[in-house]
Design brief:
The protein has helices at 3-19, 24-31, 35-47, 70-75, 78-89, 104-111, 126-130, 157-163, 189-200, 239-247, and strands at 21-23, 51-54, 57-60, 97-100, 120-122, 139-141, 146-148, 153-155, 168-173, 177-179, 183-186, 202-208, 220-223, 230-233, 251-254. By secondary structure, it is of the alpha/beta class. α5 packs across α6 (104-111) and α8 runs parallel beside α9. The longest helix is centred in the N-terminal third of the chain and has 17 residues, at 3-19.
Length: 263
């Protein structure tokens, strides 16, 4: 698939996310392509389950509570998440206590900290924890709890209480959506409660999200944006959001601008 086709798909999905529907003629004009090209794009997006077509346009097939599978999320914006992961890992140094959220972006961070010794890592993510089972030069903490089916993450009251007993230097947290009014949001209420516990006792909260999450709202609230200290992303946020971050003193790191984080 060409880069321009991927761009069109993402453009269409972004419009649907914001407005609820799209019009073939408007899309063709905005993207400077033919109506036939847009209709073909809509057919492909419908086959993938992202939208539902109607005569002259399309609507989204995902509600705010819809959570794509872990496998699907791992394939979405994969390159961007890898870049974010490499950049975020550079912020962790020997002796740090670190919390890593669940999810595909956090997993990319974990993959890049294997060389850092003498850190303490707490995570409710079983795939992340598994990367460090054999490490004797670091301390790995699993908070216990209930395994969420299909996600390989720990949830529930035991998880939340144990996490709240730990104080860390920095937390890397993901999100289903980031919006000025709604703040940081997630698809699942159980996950949101665990994220809130992670945020509660972190000295520094770092939001690690690819740019597709900006100006989007998922099902349940996690945190207000003023609870975030830094943001790591792959591309600049929309202007209004960027201005908000600047006014709140929240540092935004554009990982894609760092040549060391490229492949």
């Amino acid at each position: 698939m060409s880069t321009f086709v991927e761009y069109r798909y993402q453009f269409i999905l972004d419009i649907i996310e914001k407005r609820g529907s799209v019009n073939v003629i408007e899309l063709a004009e905005a993207l400077n392509v033919s109506d036939m090209t847009i209709r073909r794009d809509l057919r492909e997006l419908e086959k993938s389950g992202f939208i539902r077509r109607f005569h002259g346009g399309a609507v989204g097939s995902r509600g705010r509570a819809y959570e794509p599978s872990l496998m699907t999320r791992s394939m979405e914006n994969q390159k961007q998440k890898e870049i974010i992961g490499r950049y975020a890992a550079k912020m962790i140094v020997e002796g740090d206590s670190v919390a890593l959220d669940v999810g595909t972006t956090a997993y990319q961070i974990a993959k890049n900290i294997g060389h850092i010794k003498n850190i303490t890592l707490i995570t409710p993510s079983l795939p992340i924890a598994q990367l460090f089972f054999e490490r004797s030069d670091m301390r790995l903490i699993l908070p216990g709890g209930i395994v969420r089916p299909g996600e390989s993450s720990l949830i529930g009251e035991i998880t939340r209480r144990n996490i709240e007993q730990v104080f860390v230097d920095r937390l890397f947290v993901g999100a289903g959506g980031v919006d000025i009014q709604a703040g940081v949001t997630e698809f699942n209420m159980d996950d949101a409660l665990i994220k809130q516990a992670l945020i509660k006792n972190a000295k520094e909260v770092i939001l690690a999200v690819d740019a597709s999450k900006f100006d989007k709202i998922s099902f349940t609230h996690v945190a207000d944006l003023n609870q975030i200290d830094q943001v790591i992303t792959d591309a600049p946020p929309p202007e209004e959001l960027r201005r908000y971050f600047r006014n709140q003193g929240i540092t935004v790191h554009i990982a894609a601008k760092d040549p060391e984080c490229q492949e």
